[in-house]
UniProtKB/TrEMBL annotation:
The family this protein is said to belong to: Belongs to the SOS response-associated peptidase family.
InterPro entries registered for this protein in UniProt: SRAP (IPR003738), SRAP-like (IPR036590)
Organism superkingdom: Bacteria
Protein's recorded name: Abasic site processing protein
Keyword tags: Covalent protein-DNA linkage, DNA damage, DNA-binding, Hydrolase, Lyase, Protease
Membrane-spanning residues: none
Pfam families in UniProt: SRAP (PF02586)
Keyword Hydrolase among UniProt keywords: yes
Origin organism lineage: Bacteria, Bacillati, Bacillota, Bacilli, Bacillales
GO process terms (BP): protein-DNA covalent cross-linking repair; proteolysis
Amino acid sequence: MCNRYSLTAELSDLTANFRIDRVHVPYLMRYNIAPTQQIPIIQQIGEERCLNQQRWGLMPYWGKNSVNANLDTLGDRRYLRNMLTKKRCVVPCSGFYIWKQEGKHKSAWRVVHQYKKTFAIPAIYDVWLDSEKIEYPMCTVITRGYAFGTDHPLPLILDDDAIDLWLNPGETRIETLQSLLYSLKDSDFRIYPVTSYVENEAWETPDCIEEVHPSMALVKV
């Protein structure tokens, strides 16, 4: 999912659309979510589907690309394979950002779903214990290929039926789980230029998602 995304759904819409039973954490709409931040995730806890939060990105010793996990190599690494069978969650997303290189400059663009205001990105997670045995849940989203001619990984998206199976802890068959994961066609998305301020992860305002003239999307490299 490159390294920025937004979640701009109202809590009432989010809980209704994803059939969330319980909200465990305070919820705020987010316009410029970045790696290592705490992000909203959906997971199954007992009989309830819950809105919780986790750190976006696995701990550094697991490699530089800890924000995204490529579907094509997911089964090649034991720790990722174990998470796939036992620790799955969903990252709700209203749109993600990419940057296009144009000569000496790059421009910021937002990618949204043509038919869904908020969509479900499959993710896997683990829990890190510190020296005092305090738990720190952390997740990575599953991607495949690249988005719109850039080098930014393209997140996969779950449909409603796939969400149910993905969050079902009783499903552990890797082949079945991988069959739920597929890339959408470019035509299923809309892409539009946004302010270059999204490059700054501290910039967290509604104007991050507003469409701008392409010249306003340029970021100096």
